[in-house]
């Protein structure tokens, strides 16, 4: 089963945990022996249905630092940065930088206008050949976006 979807060009460091199972915190017990499905005790005292897995979405060009924990069901937006050791329990917007335990918004990587233009460009969907033609401007966001837009218009 696959409960996590990861976009293109992501950087995910070691010792990260993404997704994972949840427990029914509004039931009398959180133990998996009280709902259907497999568990380590190989015992089910109830046939109640509980789905412990929510889909987790990691956008394109996301950087997740070493030892980060991403809760099941969370969405990490395109271009986001998750700091080392962060515990992410809420969805993260595009091009936001989050860190801490629990993780909180530190700042946005770019202005809202630039973020909107990057998202519209969807540069991560370009072919390797096309990306290689615009890669000389990877450190100049404005020029990169101009060149990507020129490239898209010629297609």
Quick take:
This protein is an alpha/beta fold.
Task: Give keywords.
21% strand; 155 residues; transferase activity; Hexapep_transf_CS; 3 helices; UDP N-Acetylglucosamine Acyltransferase, domain 1; alpha/beta; transferase; 3-stranded parallel β-sheet
Q: Structural class from helices and strands?
A: alpha/beta
Round the mean pLDDT to the nearest integer and report it. 94
Largest β sheet strand count, sense and barrel closure: 5 strands, mixed
Architecture of the largest domain, CATH level 2? 3 Solenoid
* Percentage of residues in helical conformation: 10-25%
SS summary, helix count:
3
CATH-defined superfamily of the largest domain: Hexapeptide repeat proteins
The tally of beta strands, per DSSP, is 11
CATH class descriptor of the largest domain = Mainly Beta
| Structural domains: how many | 2
Strand proportion: 15-25%
Low-confidence stretches: none
CATH topology of the largest domain: UDP N-Acetylglucosamine Acyltransferase, domain 1
Question: Whole-number radius of gyration?
Answer: 20 Å
List SSEs in N-to-C order. Answer: EEEEEEEEEEEHHH
**Quaternary structure type:** single chain
Envelope shape: elongated
């Amino acid at each position: 089963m696959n409960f996590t979807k990861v976009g293109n060009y992501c950087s995910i460091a070691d010792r990260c945990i993404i997704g994972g199972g949840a427990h029914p915190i509004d039931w009398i017990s959180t133990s998996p022996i009280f709902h259907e499905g497999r568990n380590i005790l190989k015992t089910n005292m109830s046939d109640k249905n509980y789905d412990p897995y929510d889909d987790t979405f990691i956008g394109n060009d996301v950087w997740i630092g070493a030892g980060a924990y991403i809760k099941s069901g969370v969405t990490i937006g395109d271009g986001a940065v998750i700091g080392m050791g962060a515990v992410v329990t809420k969805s993260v917007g595009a091009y936001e930088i989050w860190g801490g335990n629990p993780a909180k918004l530190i700042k946005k990587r770019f202005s809202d206008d630039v973020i909107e233009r990057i998202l519209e460009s969807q540069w991560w969907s370009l072919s390797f050949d096309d990306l290689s033609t615009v890669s000389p401007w990877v450190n100049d966001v404005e020029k990169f976006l101009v060149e990507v837009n020129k490239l898209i218009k010629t297609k």
